[in-house]
Amino acid sequence: MMSPDPFNTVLSALAQELQKHTPSLISLAERLTLAATHDVLVLLTGETGTGKTHLARLIHEFSPRKVHPLLVVPCGALSPNLLESEFFGHARGAFTGADRTKIGKLEAADSGTLLLDEIDALPVEAQASLLRVIETGAFEPVGSNETKFCQARIIAASNWDLEDAVAQGKFRQDLYYRLNVLAFFLPPLRERRQDIEALARAMVARFAAKFGKRLFVVSPEVLQALQIFPWPGNIRQLENVLQQAVLVCPGSELLFEHLPHPIRDRTARSLSTIPPGCVPTKETDLIEPETGKRILAKHLGASERAIIKQTLAATGNSRGRAASALGISRVTLYKKMKKYGLVDSPLR
Amino acid sequence: MTNKTTGRDEVVTLEESEGHQPTVLVIEDNDLTRFGMAETLTREGYLVLTAASGHDALGILRQPFSALDVVILDVQLPDASGIDICARLRELYPTLPVIVCTGGATPEEVAQLLKLGVHRYFRKPIASDELLSVVEAALP
Predict the structure, then answer these.
(1) What is the tens place of the pLDDT at every residue in A213-260?
(2) ipTM for the complex shown
(3) Residues A306 and A320 in one domain
């Protein structure tokens, strides 16, 4: 077992690392340190692009295994037939096209770390073999009788809640229990808005250096736009957006106009329907019922008229959907429409 | 369709970009090649999304923030075979034009890719203007 001192060294280093780019994850620091300093199985869950691979890399780098390789198996990217071969390797002649022995990732990872990404996509047969590896370390390459032993430390990453997959019969319960020793949940980026600025600044600096641009300032409008966007693709998407923006930016300041069209579009739509200082927290094309109620209660008159008009336009003039989006009854909506002269009038 | 007339260093402004901006996904693990292609295409007015691995590529394919028009795929990726990525891509987007770039694919690989409906392929390295004409030809 490790003595307290190395633990605290790793803890403060990890905490610093998290604080720099992802302050919202600082609460994970202690458990991450446990993961780094012990050879336990780790399960990372989170939407695509939320930083699971990055976290796995952190765990690896702060563990005694850092001198050995970290290999990633993208379980979702491989065809099921080749997945077995990818994991366990194959002997020469094992199947058509296997003209030489292949060393699988389990073996290639050696004494390092193996990240099984998108483990939710692992076919049921492969799950059984993986369970055996976890329990005994033993496996055989495809088409071979020679038993090998896996020395690597396994980290699993999943885009979906594995518990749901177990309930649906798509994932083995016994494998899930084995993997669920030290589990981490990475919330989507839209629920970690404080990370957006920190990540954005780091990414802009990185791309500016890569493209040889002298970028010094990120304008507040850009930061606001980044805060508004719902980021279904999370951090990976943010990275792509900022890469594009930095490529396009000619001067030393990153401006709103340098952002790609879909981001600007989203900001324009959001800001036109919601009063300043009130940043929406949920992704929807219409005004969220909760937000709608708050706004209607607080900002009557001109704002109410504008909001109703906008919502009707967004729902294709469907009063039913508009009313539900605004969190009011159809009757109330109709009354308000009459009040503001919006009944039977064209929407322009 | 493409902003060819705006010139090299001009920034695309809000008024100019009404409607959809033609979007290219570049899947290439070599940094220099990837950024080179991204820069060439961006200057031309495309919206460029990039991925350095099959894993990242799939992440973007699942959640592109702009609808994809063309994909440029390097078949020799470190974490997954180009053919696998192409197959998964076809599952998600049956008609999306795919341009394969290769440092040297075997004839069998080429045959398999053509079967998967790859639009065209070019060998690396490729000159900027040739890249642009290949991409433009692939646009629907």
Answers:
(1) 888 899 999 999 999 999 999 999 999 999 999 999 988 899 999 999
(2) 0.76
(3) yes
Q: What is the pTM of this model?
A: 0.74
Distance in angstroms (rounded) separating the CA atoms of residues A259 and A4: 47
Which range of residues forms the domain containing residue A48? 39-187
φ/ψ bin of A315: left (φ > 0), alpha (ψ from -120 to 50), beta (otherwise): alpha
**Mutation site for B-interface testing, chosen from A75, A78, A231 by largest number of B Cβ within 10 Å:** A78
> How many residues make up chain A in this entry?
348
Q: Which of A125, A158, A187 is the last residue of a domain?
A: A187
For A68, residues 6+ apart whose C-beta sits below 8 A from its C-beta are: A109, A110, A111, A112, A113
Report strand pairing: A138-139 vs A148-149. Answer: antiparallel
pLDDT of residue A286: 37
CB contact under 8 A, B55 and A53: yes
Residue of A nearest to B13 (CA): A257
Q: Model confidence over A323-337: pLDDT tens digits?
A: 778 877 777 777 777
Q: Exposure of B33 by Cβ count < 10 A (0-12 exposed, 13-18 middle, 19+ buried)?
A: middle
- Give the C-alpha separation, A77 to A105, whole Å: 15
Same domain, A232 and A135: no
Domains annotated for chain B, with CATH where assigned, are: 21-138 (3.40.50.2300)
CATH of residue A305: 1.10.10
B55/A74 CB distance under 8 A: yes
Query: Looking at residue A113, which CATH number applies to its domain?
Result: 3.40.50.300
Q: Is residue A146 in a domain? A: yes
Spatial distance between the Cα atoms of B10 and A304, rounded to a whole number of angstroms? 40
